[in-house]
Amino acid sequence: ELDAYLIRSHGEVPEIADTTVVLNHGRFVGIEHYRPRVRFLHELGYTVFVWDYRGFGKSDARGAPTLPQMMKDARLAYAHASRVAPDPGKMVVYGMSIGGIPAGEMAAEFDACSNIFEASFNSITAKIETNMAISLPGSFLTTGVAENDVKLRTSTTPTLIMHGDRDDRIHIDEAQRLFNSIPDSTPKDLVIVADAGHGLGFEGGVPEQGLTAYGEIMLDFLTEHAPECLSN
After folding, report:
1. How crowded is residue 138: how many other Cβ atoms within 10 Å of its Cβ?
2. Which of 99, 128, 145, 223 is the most exposed place for a label (fewest CB within 10 A)?
């Protein structure tokens, strides 16, 4: 059993009132730790679907998921979100931090109207290879199940990547690597946010540098590159 919530839009921004952000959060605790991000997205005017991975929050508590289990759960979560969303044709896959891994699975398996990655963990291979304490190539330890730059290299879905220039947990090179792997024919944008850290800690993340600016980055991208996400 996976714990999930749908928070419907307040409707004050008509063009995104039927747009659902499927939020894949980071690795701490559960949904309760990420309520500020849920609140930000809801205040901007989106409907928000947020879920807990098994072993997190109130989801199946028999232990943390393996990568294959997380991918399976991601597919189940998206399928459920599409059943309860106000418009299943206006769903945005959103991956924050390690939530970029299940978000990548959703993005690869379903036809969302847009993908958004924030301070996102793009690739286990890259994480291993940028850790100076580990000398083995990352490919020795992973088979591609958690490599978004592999999964999305043929993607045609408009993709926005936001990353802080002071993120000391996930190297900015991971954001650049994902951006470069997505075909140039696919609408995409990489936005580097000045003074933003990883977020939800002592350092402010992307939204904390300005909620209005954060909202404008997202809405401008959807308007220009993914208008099917918006209502007329």
Report:
1. 17
2. 223
Q: Are 102 and 124 in contact (CB under 8 A)?
A: no
Neighbours of 181 (CB within 10 A): 19
How many angstroms separate the CA atoms of 212 and 207, rounded?
Answer: 8
Output phi, psi for 194, to 5 deg: -65, 135
Concatenate the DSSP letters of all residues of 117-175 into one string: EES---BHHHHHHT-TT--S-GGGT--STTBHHHHTTT--S-EEEEEETT-SSS-HHHH
Q: Which pLDDT tens digit goes with each residue over 57-114?
A: 677 767 777 888 889 999 999 999 999 999 999 999 999 998 999 999 999 999 999 9
- pLDDT tens digits along 188-231: 999 999 999 988 765 689 998 999 999 999 999 999 999 999 99
Structure tokens at 29: 């605790």
Q: What is the pTM of this model?
A: 0.90
